[in-house]
Specification:
Layout: H1 2-48, H2 64-77, H3 84-119, H4 122-169, H5 174-180, H6 188-229, H7 239-258, H8 262-285, H9 287-293, H10 296-350, H11 367-419, E1 456-459, E2 464-472, E3 478-487, E4 493-496, H12 503-511, E5 520-523, E6 529-532, H13 543-548, H14 560-569, H15 574-579, H16 588-591, H17 594-608, E7 612-616, H18 624-636, E8 640-644, E9 656-660, E10 666-670, H19 673-706, H20 717-727
Parallel strand pairs: 1-5, 4-8, 4-9, 6-7, 7-8
Antiparallel strand pairs: 2-3, 2-5, 9-10
C-alpha cells in the first residue's frame, strides 16, 4: 500500500512539474518572439497614436501613467476628509481591522478546542465551544458589514464620479462637441455608465482585498513571532522570515514576469463591447428605415461581425487566464502549503527544552500544549498565506483596474479638451468624383483640425459681424474660405444655396457649436439665438414642457393663459383639448404629425422671444397660409428671422439674401422680392416647356412611322444646322 501511494505521488509530482515546465517554455518562446517584433510594433504605434496621450494603450499596468491617472481620479472621488466617501472609507477600514483581530482570536479558540480534546476535558471543550459560538455572532455581523460598507462605498464613489462626469459632459456643449467635433470617444454613453460603475466597483473591491491582507500579515507575523519567542531554545525566529521572503520573491517574480497584460486585454474588450452596444442602439434608432428597405440582413451581418470581434477578444482573455491561473494555483496553493508546513515544523523540531504542560499528571510530555500551538500556528499561517495570496493575485486585478482607469481618465480628459475647444478627429476622405450636375457640394480643400481654433469670438450688443470667418466642417472640409458680413436686428435674412454649401453650417458657427478657426466673429450672447430645425426636438414631459423647452415649470415666466395665446399664434390651440390639457404627458414625437411638430417648435420662439430666430426648413410640412401668419406675427414681436428655405412663398417676409453658390463663393445683398418672383416665374415656365419637348418628339416620330415617312424631325439645334448645311 505504501509503495502504491508513493508511486501515485511520484506520478502526480512528475505530471505537475512537466506541465509547469511546458508552460514556462511556452512563455519563454512567446516572449522571445515578442522581443523580435517589439521594434516594429512600437514604430507602428508611434505613427498611429500619440504615446503621451492618455488614450494610448496600456503598455504596463504598474507605470507612472497609471499612478498619475489613479491619483487624479482619487482626488475627484475623495475631495476632502469631510466628504461622505472618506467617512465610509474610514468605517470600512475599521471593520477590516476588527475582522483581522477576530480571525486571530478564533485561531486561538481552535487551538483551545483541539487541546481540550487531546486532554479529554469535556468541561473545557464545551466551555470553549460556547465561547466560539458567542464570538461567531459579532464575527458574522462584521463579515456582513464588510460587504455592506464596501457596497455603500462603491455606490458613493460612483455617485461622486458620475456627478463630476455629468457636470463636465453638460458644460460648454461638451455633449455635442465630443461626438460631432472629436473622434476620440466612440461610445461616450458606455463611458458614462458601465465604465464608471466598473471602475468604482473594482477600485473598492481591490481596496478591501489589499488593505486587509497587509494588516493580516503584519498582525499574524507579530503573533507567530511572539509564539516562537516563548520557546527560547527553538530555532526559526531568523530562519522562517528569511525563507518566507525567498518564497514570496520567487512567487511574485514568476507571476509578474509571466503574467499576461490583462490591462490592455480588458480595455480592448470593454471598447469592443461598447461598439457592439452602439450598433444595437443604431438599429433601434433607425428601425423604421431599415424595415422599409428590408435591410435586416445587412444590419445582422454587421452586428454579428462586431460580436465575433468581441468573442475573439474574450476567448483570448480566457486562454490567457488558463495557463496563468494554473501557475498561480501551483505556486500559491501547493508550493506555499508545503513551505508553510516546513516553517511550522522548524520551531517544533528544533525545540530541546523541557516539556510545556499545564497538566503534569495527565499530560507530562505536553502533547496537548504542542497540539494547541501547532493548530494555532497552522491556522495563523494559513490566514497569512491567504492574505499573501490575495496580495500577489491582486496584480491581475490591478492590471484590470489600469484598463478601467485609463478609459475613465481618458473620458474626463476628452471632456476637458472639448470644453476648451481642443479637438482631435480622424479625418475622413470624401469621394470627389461626383456628377457635375449634382446639387450636392464636395469640399475641395481640407485643413488639419487637430489644433486649437485661433479665431476670436467677441460678444456684441446686437449685431452679427463676421470678418474673414471660414466655414470648416468637423471633418476638415473647407466649405467657405472667408465670410464677411453684417446682420442687424432690423434685417430678416433669407439663406439659399444647394445642398452642402454651408447654410446650416453658418447657423452652427453663429450659435457657437462649431469653432471659429480664423478671423473674428462678433455676436450677441448665445441666449439671443433660438434654432428651430426641420425636425424639432420633442422632450419627455407634458405639452407645457414642449412649449417652454428648455425651461421647466419652475422657471417658466408665463402662465397657462399666455401659453394658450402662443398656441393660437401657431394654429395649435385645438391639440390642448384633443390631448387632455397642457399637463398631459404623451410620447409627442410619435403622436403629433410632422406639421404639428414643426408648429409646436415655432411656438417656442413666441415663448422665448429671442433676438434672432434661426429657422432651418422649419415650415416644410406647414401650409402656406399658416406659415405666412406665423412669420408675420414673429416680425411683429421684433424677432429677426434668419431662414433657410426653398419656398418662394417666404421671400416676401425677408429683407436680405445670403446666397451660397456651392463652390465656396457667396453673396449678401438686399432682397428684391419682385425681381426674384419674376425670375422664379420665368424659370418655372421654361421648365414646363422643356418638360414637354420629349413628349412632342415622341409623338412626331410615331406619326412619321404611321405615314411611312423615313425622315424624322431634328431633335436639337445642331441637327437642324447640320441638315441645313446638307441642303446647300
Amino acid at each position: 500500500m505504501y509503495s502504491l501511494r508513493s508511486r501515485r505521488a511520484k506520478i502526480l509530482l512528475f505530471s505537475s512539474s512537466f506541465a509547469v515546465i511546458a508552460y514556462l517554455i511556452r512563455r519563454y518562446r512567446r516572449s522571445a518572439l515578442l522581443k523580435k517584433r517589439r521594434a516594429l510594433v512600437i514604430s507602428k504605434e508611434s505613427r498611429t497614436t500619440d504615446a503621451s496621450s492618455p488614450s494610448s494603450p496600456i503598455r504596463n499596468a504598474l507605470n507612472k501613467q497609471f499612478y498619475h491617472q489613479l491619483r487624479a481620479l482619487i482626488r475627484i472621488l475623495i475631495p476632502n476628509v469631510k466628504s461622505d466617501s472618506f467617512a465610509l472609507l474610514i468605517l470600512h477600514l475599521t471593520t477590516l481591522i476588527t475582522r483581522t483581530f477576530l480571525s486571530i482570536y478564533i485561531a486561538h479558540l481552535d487551538g483551545a478546542i483541539v487541546k481540550s480534546l487531546v486532554q479529554r476535558n469535556p468541561r473545557q471543550f464545551f466551555r470553549t465551544i460556547c465561547t466560539f459560538i458567542g464570538v461567531a455572532v459579532p464575527a458574522s455581523f462584521i463579515n456582513s458589514s464588510i460587504r455592506f460598507i464596501e457596497s455603500k462605498l462603491s455606490l458613493a464613489l460612483r455617485t461622486r464620479l458620475t456627478q463630476h462626469a455629468y457636470e463636465a459632459y453638460f458644460k460648454n456643449q461638451t455633449y455635442y462637441r465630443v461626438t460631432n467635433l472629436d473622434s476620440r470617444l466612440l461610445t461616450p454613453d458606455q463611458n458614462l455608465t458601465d465604465d464608471i460603475e466598473t471602475f468604482t466597483s473594482t477600485l473598492t473591491h481591490l481596496f478591501s482585498h489589499l488593505t486587509k491582507p497587509f494588516f493580516d500579515i503584519a498582525v499574524i507575523s507579530w503573533s507567530l513571532i511572539a509564539m516562537v519567542r516563548q520557546r527560547a531554545t527553538a530555532r526559526g525566529l531568523k530562519e522562517v522570515p528569511v525563507m518566507t521572503m525567498i518564497v514570496f520573491l520567487i512567487t511574485f517574480t514568476a507571476l509578474r514576469k509571466l503574467s499576461p497584460r490583462f490591462g490592455r486585454l480588458v480595455s480592448e474588450e470593454a471598447r469592443r463591447r461598447g461598439i457592439l452596444r452602439f450598433a444595437h442602439t443604431r438599429v433601434i434608432a433607425n428601425a423604421e428605415e431599415i424595415a422599409f428597405f428590408d435591410g435586416h440582413q445587412v444590419e445582422k451581418n454587421w452586428v454579428l461581425k462586431l460580436y465575433d470581434q468581441l468573442r475573439e477578444q474574450t476567448n483570448l482573455i480566457i486562454k490567457k487566464k488558463l495557463w496563468f491561473i494554473m501557475l498561480e494555483q501551483f505556486l500559491m496553493k501547493y508550493f506555499w502549503h508545503a513551505s508553510g508546513m516546513m516553517f511550522i515544523a522548524i520551531p517544533f523540531l528544533t525545540y530541546d527544552g523541557p516539556p510545556e504542560t499545564d497538566d503534569p499528571v495527565g499530560d507530562p510530555l505536553g502533547i496537548s500544549a504542542r497540539t494547541e500551538a501547532f493548530t494555532v500556528s497552522k491556522n495563523l499561517l494559513t490566514s497569512g498565506a491567504d492574505a499573501l495570496e490575495r496580495i500577489i493575485s491582486s496584480y491581475k486585478e490591478i492590471a484590470e483596474l489600469a484598463g478601467h482607469t485609463d478609459r475613465v481618465y481618458t473620458m474626463l480628459h476628452v471632456f476637458d479638451d472639448c470644453a476648451n475647444a481642443h479637438y482631435q478627429r480622424n479625418l475622413v476622405t470624401t469621394d470627389e468624383n461626383h456628377d457635375e450636375h449634382s446639387s450636392s457640394v464636395v469640399a475641395k480643400k481640407k485643413v488639419a483640425i487637430n489644433q486649437r481654433a485661433e479665431g476670436k469670438i467677441i460678444e456684441s450688443d446686437e449685431d452679427i459681424i463676421a470678418e474673414d470667418v471660414p466655414i470648416i466642417t468637423p471633418n476638415g472640409d473647407v466649405i467657405v474660405e472667408s465670410l464677411s458680413l453684417k446682420i442687424t436686428p432690423a434685417m430678416h435674412v433669407l439663406i439659399t444655396g444647394p445642398n452642402g454649401c454651408g447654410k446650416s453650417s453658418f447657423f452652427r458657427i453663429v450659435r457657437g457649436l462649431w469653432p471659429v478657426y480664423s478671423g473674428r466673429l462678433h455676436r450677441p450672447d448665445p441666449s439671443s439665438f433660438f434654432l428651430i430645425p426641420q425636425r424639432p426636438y420633442m422632450c419627455p414631459g407634458t405639452l407645457r414642457d414642449q412649449i417652454i423647452y428648455p425651461h421647466t415649470v419652475a422657471n417658466a415666466f408665463v402662465d397657462d393663459t399666455k401659453l394658450m395665446e402662443i398656441l393660437d399664434n401657431v394654429e395649435l390651440k385645438y391639440i390642448v383639448q384633443r390631448e387632455g390639457g397642457l399637463s398631459a404627458e404623451r410620447d409627442w414625437k410619435d403622436i403629433l404629425s410632422g406639421g404639428e411638430k414643426q408648429r409646436l417648435g415655432l411656438a417656442r420662439i413666441f415663448y422665448h422671444r429671442p433676438r434672432y430666430a434661426l429657422l432651418d426648413e422649419c415650415t416644410s410640412a406647414v401650409s402656406i397660409d399658416v406659415e405666412g401668419k406665423i412669420y408675420e406675427r414673429a416680425k411683429e414681436l421684433g424677432i429677426s428671422l434668419l431662414t433657410i428655405t426653398h419656398r418662394p412663398s417666404l421671400w416676401a417676409y425677408h429683407t436680405h439674401l445670403l446666397q451660397f453658390n456651392g463652390d465656396g463663393r457667396w453673396t449678401f445683398e438686399i432682397l428684391n422680392t419682385e425681381k426674384l418672383l419674376t425670375l422664379q416665374g420665368e424659370k418655372e415656365r421654361l421648365e414646363t416647356q422643356l418638360a414637354g419637348i420629349p413628349k412632342i418628339q415622341q409623338r412626331l416620330n410615331e406619326l412619321c412611322q404611321l405615314l411611312g415617312d423615313d425622315t424624322t424631325a431634328p431633335t436639337t439645334r445642331e441637327d437642324q444646322d447640320h441638315e441645313g448645311s446638307n441642303d446647300y
